[in-house]
Amino acid sequence: MAAVQLVMFDLAGTTVDDTVSGLPLVAVVMKDAFKTHGIDIEAETVNEFRGLEKREAIRQLFVKTQGRDPSSEVVDRIFQTFKETLTTYLSSIKKEIPGTTATFKYLKSKGIKIAVGSGFPHSVVESIVKTLGWSGLLDYVSSSEKEGHGRPHPAMIDAAVRACQVRDPKGVVKVGDSKADVEEGKNAGCWTVAVLTGTQDTQTLKAANPDFVIASVMDLPSVLKNIEGKKVMNKGFRFTNEEK
């Protein structure tokens, strides 16, 4: 089994605390964007589509709530409102998921490269990275907008692999808090780690059959030790603070 050379992290819910008034940022902004266009949706419904590129999330939300496919023009209008509304909330995003920076530093100490990817617009991704002081720790910053495809397409991971000159996908670990993150990692042929710090519950995440389910990114070092120990992929190993 190849040694781990690169870890690709999601942002919101995985490494970034995106809660605004007790709700996930994406849910708040998406609710506001749809409401601006005369459609009421619930935060719980938005959470079902966490991890997707935001235009695709809008399309699927529209189908679920309206029972029909939206036109591309409708998606574009809601997406534009989403981006404008998101910008107004960015100043509220100032906290990492506890232990993220420490985990990044641990990876750097082991010579493992670090990338982040998100379904947010790329300018938002760059703003979050800068605000949290991660610019000097990351080897690659990606987004679905930058790469031209959103999850579950593996474009963001593929771009990070190329940028970091990793040759074997089994030397790559994808970490995220959504089913879409797990599917993205599987499509890239790499190890998949689901974390429980987002809005999707254990049952939803385990149904995607990740290689590991852990409480948070703080538990990632234990996962890496198991990967280095040549554990078999896609067996749904679970590590929590209580089990270590």
List keywords for this structure.
Rossmann fold, 2 domains, Phosphonoacetaldehyde hydrolase, 15% strand, PGP-like_dom2, 244 residues, alpha/beta, disordered C terminus, HAD-like_hydrolase_sf, globular, two-stranded antiparallel ribbon, phosphoglycolate phosphatase activity, DNA polymerase, domain 1
Report the portion of residues in β strands. 5-15%
Q: Provide the number of structural domains.
A: 2
Main beta sheet: 7 strands, parallel
Please name the CATH architecture of the largest domain. 3-Layer(aba) Sandwich
Q: How far apart are the first and last residues' alpha carbons, in Å?
A: 23 Å
Rg over alpha carbons: 17 Å
CATH top level label of the largest domain = Alpha Beta
Number of helices: 11
Widest sheet, order of strands: 7-6-1-8-9-10-11
Share of helical residues: 40-55%
What would the average pLDDT be, to the nearest integer? 91
Task: Please explain how this structure is put together.
This protein is α/β, with parallel strands linked by helices and 244 residues long. The chain has 2 domains: 6-18 and 94-230, Rossmann fold, CATH 3.40.50; 20-91, Orthogonal Bundle (DNA polymerase, domain 1), CATH 1.10.150. It has helices at residues 25-36, 43-47, 54-66, 72-89, 100-109, 122-131, 144-147, 155-163, 179-188, 202-207, 220-228; strands at 6-10, 16-17, 19-20, 23-24, 95-96, 113-117, 140-141, 172-176, 191-195, 212-214, 237-239. The strands form 3 sheets. The protein has a 7-stranded parallel β-sheet with strand order 7-6-1-8-9-10-11, sandwiched between helices. Strand 10 (212-214), helix 11 (220-228) and strand 11 (237-239) form a beta-alpha-beta unit. Helix 1 crosses helix 4 and helix 3 (54-66) crosses helix 4 (72-89). The longest helix is centred in the N-terminal third of the chain and has 18 residues, at 72-89. It starts with 5 loop residues before the first strand and ends in a 5-residue tail after the last strand. Mean pLDDT is 91; it is low at 234-244.
